[in-house]
Hints:
Ferritin; elongated
Amino acid sequence: MKFLLLAVCAQTAAAFSGGYLSQLNGGNAANGAVINGVNGANGVIDVNGSGPAFVPHQVLTESGPSQELLDLISHQVSVELMASQAYMQASIWFRAREMDGMAAWMLDESDEERGHGKQILEFAMKCQFPVTLEPLAAPTSVWQSPEQVWAEILALEQNNTRNLLAIAAAANRCEQFGVMAFLDPFHVEQIEAEDKVGGILAKVTYASEGLLWQLDHELGMSLETHS
């Protein structure tokens, strides 16, 4: 009886082994096909016989930065410096008209834009991205009204938003996720900047002369509150 049971178990094990190897080796277990190792050249496991080779899961790795991304980051450093100059020129314009609150606000923003340029430059240097500073064109200095100044500042911020989004899109295309993470705070700041400048422009557009001077005073006081 014991011999009979052992014979049945052995037969069952052989059948299971044959069926399993047949599936594993593409139906070639009958020919004695076995997995004999890994091809180190391409990571494909060779199988003796006519069955298909087993290809292991490929681990995705971060690729290098594209030339497009490198160019955009390098350009953005100069863009931030140009924005700093534009804000400074607006500050000069308001200061010449004794609108000291708006002049101080613009000067503070000029410092912030320059700080952004230094941040991007520092990030690029840490990542060993090449940066070439571009000649800075003189900003507009002739405006007819405070409304024109604020309208140009809003357009400047909107252009900066587009530039930063273009960098993020280029980083996404070449899987530079560290660059995308670095840019996140800049995107948030741009939303706040456009909202702030757009709100001031709306007030300036419809303000009487008295309200315009009141707004100038409020902007100056806001800087003292935050300092």
